[in-house]
Design a protein that fits this description.
The protein has 113 residues and is mostly beta strands. The protein is built from one helix and 13 strands. The strands form five sheets. A three-stranded antiparallel beta sheet has the order 1-2-3. A hairpin with a 3-residue loop joins strand 11 and strand 12. It starts with 15 loop residues before the first strand and ends with a strand. The mean pLDDT is 86. This is Protein PhnA. InterPro entries: YjdM, YjdM_C, YjdM_N. It comes from Oikeobacillus pervagus. Belongs to the YjdM family.
Length: 113
């Protein structure tokens, strides 16, 4: 058996190598050895719908019409959201949208500009 590193996310020992990436079949986490040394476990890593890493202050666009909870309005596709803030949780983007106010979004419904 080869000496592949355990998954840094779930600590599974069943990792495998796919080209230059290590992949965990249990949680789906992908990483390189360089990424493992760059990012500590304490740092929050959030990716958009296309897999781009998001950071605080980025500008993103909504890729799907989203119903606004507690309102009859809809957040339309293509809406630009500036100066996002990343938070821990299910809705991992905290932002203010013109015409809607403060809101939390899921990163899977946005793409980075």
């Amino acid at each position: 058996m080869s000496n592949l590193p355990n998954c840094p996310k779930c600590h599974s020992e069943y990792t495998y190598e796919d080209r230059s990436l290590f992949v965990c079949p249990e949680c789906g986490h992908e990483w390189t050895l360089e990424m493992e040394t760059e990012h500590s476990d304490d740092q929050l890593i959030v990716k958009d719908a296309n897999g781009n890493v998001l950071s605080d202050g980025d500008t993103v666009t909504v890729i799907k019409d989203l119903k606004v909870k507690g309102s009859s309005s809809v957040l339309k596709i293509g809406t630009k959201v500036k100066n996002i803030r990343l938070v821990d949780g299910d809705h991992n983007i905290d932002c203010k949208i013109t015409g809607f106010g403060p809101m939390k979004l899921k990163s899977e419904f946005v793409k980075k500009l």
